[in-house]
Design brief:
The chain has 901 residues and is α+β, with helices and mostly antiparallel strands. It has 28 helices and 34 strands. Strands 26-27-29-30-31-32-33-34 form an eight-stranded mixed beta barrel, surrounded by four helices. Strands 1, 2, 3, 4, 5, 8 and 9 form a seven-stranded antiparallel beta sheet that branches. Strand 32, helix 26 and strand 33 form a beta-alpha-beta unit. Helix 2 packs antiparallel against helix 9 and helix 17 crosses helix 18. The longest helix has 71 residues. The protein is rod-shaped and about 205 Å long. The structure holds ligand C2E and calcium ion (2 copies). Ligand C2E binds next to strand 27, helix 19, helix 20 and strand 31.
């Protein structure tokens, strides 16, 4: 078995499986074989029987003919005797002489006819007159031994006949002195009456020793019965049997006592009664009737003889018990068949197993999100899965039989590849980060594993399998709307992994400037809706065209974010000028394959003339800039500054602690009064959030609110603020004063806002008419219908709406007036630098228009009486600012209100 194992690489499980399989096959085969052989057997059997019966019939005809012929001869002999001169003399005169002459003639005759055991003359009284016996030698029976045969049937029958007629007896035994002769001697008697002129004087009888007849007929070459052949009389008793050990059994009709047994009376009865052949056990019997006496009697009175042929079916037709009665030959054949079956099972099993394995492997390879590429020893690609096609842009058909160098990015040094292949050859695998080039020329970082698969037998390497994960699209790294911690991960990734593989840039000249742009494309379907376009291809073509030889690389780091490296500028301002030129408009107008596309983008740029071998930090700076404008700046293009990096770093810290601000009870709210100088009254309070963290101390909402927004924490925090303010409401004795709550644009879009506020109002029994929402104008410009619906909902609940920081966005007052708003909050920036004598034209314009439109204006951040007085002079009368009060905690309100009076 161990050799077997070694040859075929089979384990115990395989062998069991193969044997199981073989057993199933053998069983099935055996069943089929049994059924099949049964039919074959039946078919052959009936064929055999048919042939046997035909042959037997022919043989029987021959036997019948032979016997008849024999008996006909005998009849002739009898008539020759009767018609002899001696007999003629004897018939006319039975004197001594004539008697003696007849006796002599009988002896002579008998001499030549050994088959005649007796020749006799019986007189008309039944007494024997002359008898010649032929046992060994013909001999005349003495007178005193002659007997009275008057009671014998053959005598009785013969004396009834006319002259010249012949009587033939059935087969009988010789009787001597009323005793059956032993050994049994079957005889047939033929006799004829002797008339002298019409008067019967006696009969002439010859006894045929039937033994001669039968053995001569049955032993004849022409009767080729192969097996047991027996002759029965019509009673089913033996007349003749080829088996000499079986005694003759004759029925002598008149001597029932002497009948001997027949071997198979029931078979004979059955055969005789209704059919001429039958099977019994493993024997087949045919029965054919012959009439041995038809030549002598047209209608035989002596009945028929039955020739029964017995053959052993087992000998002629192979046994039907093929499975359990096997001989050595059968067993060896069967063994051979089994071996063939087992071998076939083995082949089938191995084939199936391999096929299964192959299928499984292929399925896994096809389905996996990792790229799988298999190349041969010449590194020609033999297989690539779907992920690979998706990643690389190469269709399977395009890439097959190409050298793997087609994927080389050219950013790694050759020594990296040398090391890589060395490791693969020595250790069988390599893993690490490798940048690969896609069909469109983009390069990507991939985490790769390259395995060498050796042919077990030849020990030559046969295949290389590479599995690779696309780092750029992997979740571990950044996506366009990623959060700060992901940025951190990206930075770490750049530093830890990419640094190991120095990007192989064109040789830098220390006097040259170079830089990196991190750029996010904003897919604007409005502009490009008609084309089935691949934005990426369009963009890549645009970048290549714009930077030409100055382009070092383009790397895709996430869905729509690319890092573009460029070099070879005379100085920084030269580089900046070119970049500004390329990115000059808010929209990139790109002509690609005769189609015009408009792409919007955000870009962080880093330009330097200091030589870096730390190229990764340049990428990192550009990317940091992009992150900065995404979170803090909202501008479209920015150039890197150290402050941005610091802000980003602090932002990451803030984001970290902010997560647990609510649960750690780090928030509280303060109130800043709003004063109507005409009514000389406090008309409301703005609710302002405060955050104190043990590590960071007090953090300004200006700083943490946008981070909370970026991290998606603002919604929970916003509800916390609303609930907290509602809790305070009753203690505030509002009396028509409004509580003004800042609603972040992100929360403004939260569908649950109206229902949450309603249920909180119900919970704390708050009149929503006491509540005002401060929203920035940005929420009104993105989606007009949505904004209007939201505002309507809030208004229907009784909530007033104030537009915060008015004037800092791009919306006009006309636009705002389309919405049902109660209040504008003139941003502090318009007031803050006021010097006596200043005109504050914008403020004046806003105040005038608002008054015309019947919208209240509140001036934020008023710190000095000069500001207030001037603002009053241009039509303002509602103020909020340090001049009146800084934001205060709840308990301070009472004191403030008292002092205000
Ligand atoms: P904002 O809504 O414009 O709030 C007015 C800001 O101006 C407040 O700063 C307030 O303390 C400050 N301020 C008031 N009077 C004067 C003044 O005379 N001089 C100067 N220099 N500043 C004055 P704060 O509380 O730091 O809030 C900053 C910003 O944070 C707010 O600007 C608001 O946009 C946001 N914010 C504050 N609380 C919340 C809040 O609960 N929810 C949301 N979504 N944003 C809030
Ligand atoms: Ca506000
Ligand atoms: Ca404001």
């Amino acid at each position: 078995m161990s050799i077997f194992k070694r040859i075929f690489h089979l384990d115990q499980y395989d062998i069991i499986m193969i044997i199981k399989r073989a057993l199933v096959y053998i069983l099935a085969m055996s069943i089929l074989y049994t059924i099949f052989s049964h039919f074959i057997y039946q078919d052959r059997l009936s064929e055999y029987k048919k042939i046997t019966y035909i042959t037997d019939e022919a043989n029987a005809n021959f036997i019948s003919f032979s016997i008849n012929h024999y008996l006909l001869d005998l009849k002739d002999d009898l008539l020759v005797l009767k018609n002899s001169n001696e007999m003629a003399a004897y018939i006319s005169q039975q004197d001594d002489y004539n008697t003696e002459e007849v006796e002599k003639m009988f002896l002579r005759f008998s001499e030549n006819k050994t088959d005649l055991s007796q020749i006799r003359i019986i007189d008309n009284q039944g007494n024997e007159k002359i008898r010649v016996n032929h046992i060994n030698e013909p001999e005349l029976v003495r007178e005193e031994n002659l007997q009275d045969k008057s009671n014998r049937y053959y005598f009785e029958q013969t004396i009834l006949l006319d002259d010249g007629e012949v009587y033939i007896s059935h087969l009988d035994l010789n009787i001597e002195n009323n005793e059956i002769d032993i050994p049994y001697q079957p005889v047939i008697r033929i006799s004829t009456p002797l008339y002298n002129m019409n008067s019967l004087i006696g009969i002439l009888v010859v006894n045929l020793d039937a033994k001669y007849l039968l053995s001569s007929v049955f032993a004849s070459q022409q009767t080729n019965f192969s097996d047991n052949i027996s002759l029965f009389n019509d009673q089913g008793f033996y007349i003749y049997n080829s088996d000499e050990s079986i005694l003759y059994g004759h029925i002598i009709l008149t001597r029932q006592n002497f009948q001997l047994s027949s071997n198979f009376p029931e078979i004979i009865t059955e055969l005789n009664s209704n059919q001429d052949h039958t099977s019994y056990d493993d024997k087949y019997y045919t029965l054919i009737k012959i009439d041995p006496f038809s030549s002598i009697h047209a209608e035989s009175q002596n009945g028929e003889w039955l020739i029964v042929h017995e053959s052993d079916l087992n000998e002629v037709v192979p046994s039907q018990h093929i499975i359990f009665t096997l001989d050595i030959y059968d067993i060896s054949i069967l063994g051979l068949v089994w071996l063939v079956i087992i071998f076939a099972s083995y082949l089938a099993y191995i084939h199936k197993k391999d096929g299964f394995k192959l299928n499984v492997v292929r399925r896994i390879a096809d389905e996996t999100s990792d790229s799988v590429v298999i190349s041969n020893e010449k590194k020609l690609i033999e297989y690539a899965n779907k992920s690979f096609s998706d990643f690389s842009g190469y269709q399977k058909g395009e890439i097959l039989n190409h050298h793997t160098r087609i994927l080389k990015s050219h950013i790694h040094t050759q020594s990296l590849y040398d090391d890589l292949w060395k490791k693969v050859t020595e250790q069988g695998y390599w893993s690490g980060i490798l940048w690969q080039k896609k069909k469109n020329g983009l390069i990507f970082p991939k985490h790769m594993m390259i395995y060498e698969m050796r042919d077990e037998k030849s020990k030559r390497h046969a295949n290389y399998v590479s599995l690779s994960k696309d780092l750029a699209s992997s979740n571990t790294f950044i996506t366009p709307n990623t959060s700060l911690s992901d940025n951190h991960a990206f930075a770490t990734y750049l530093k830890d992994d990419l640094l190991k593989y120095q990007i192989n840039l064109p040789a830098f000249n220390e006097t040259m400037s170079f830089g990196v742009i991190a750029l996010t494309l904003i897919h604007n379907e409005e502009h490009n809706k008609n084309d089935d376009l691949n934005i990426e291809n369009v963009f890549i073509a645009f970048v290549k065209e714009s930077f030409k030889e100055q382009l070092s690389f383009i790397v895709k780091i996430s869905q729509m974010t690319y890092i573009i490296g460029f070099h070879n500028y005379k100085n920084e301002s030269n580089a900046k000028e070119h970049i500004e030129n390329v990115l000059s408009q808010r929209l990139l107008h790109v002509i690609h394959e005769k189609h015009a596309y408009v792409l919007t983008f955000k870009a962080g740029v880093y330009i330097t003339s200091k030589f870096h071998d730390d190229y990764i930090s340049m990428i990192s700076h550009a990317y940091t800039t992009l992150r900065y404008i995404n979170v803090y700046d909202q501008t479209q293009i920015a150039y890197y500054s150290e402050d941005m990096a610091k802000t980003i770093a602090r932002g990451m810290q803030i984001a970290h602690y902010l997560q647990n601000g609510i649960s750690n009870n780090e928030f509280y709210i303060v109130y800043q009064p709003q004063i109507d100088t005409i009514k000389n009254k406090i008309i409301g309070y703005e609710v302002l959030l405060r955050w104190h963290n043990d590590v960071l101390g007090h953090v300004s909402p200006y700083e943490f609110i946008r981070i909370a927004e970026d991290k998606g924490l603002i919604v929970d925090i916003g509800y916390w603020v609303i609930e907290e303010a509602f809790k305070h409401c009753h203690q505030m004795n509002l009396q028509g004063k409004k509580l003004s709550i800042n609603i972040s644009p992100i929360q403004f879009l939260d569908q649950k806002l109206a229902s949450e506020v309603s249920s909180l109002a119900a919970k704390y029994q708050i009149q929503l008419a006491d509540i005002e929402f401060e929203v920035t104008e940005s929420v009104l410009v993105t989606d007009f219908n949505l904004a209007q619906n939201r505002l309507k909902t809030f208004k229907s609940l009784g909530i007033s709406i104030a537009i915060d920081d008015f004037g800092t966005g791009y919306s006009s007052l006309q636009y705002i007036s389309k919405f049902d708003v109660n209040k504008l909050k003139l941003d502090r920036s318009f007031i803050k630098d006021y010097q006596p004598g200043d005109k504050l034209l914008i403020a004046k314009h806003v105040i005038n228009l608002s008054n015309d439109l019947n919208i209240k204006v509140i001036c934020e951040g008023t710190e000095t009486i000069e500001q207030i007085n001037y603002l009053k002079s241009i039509g303002a009368h509602i103020f909020q600012g340090y001049y009146y009060a800084k934001p205060m905690i709840l308990s301070e309100i009472k004191t403030f209100e008292q002092s205000f009076k």
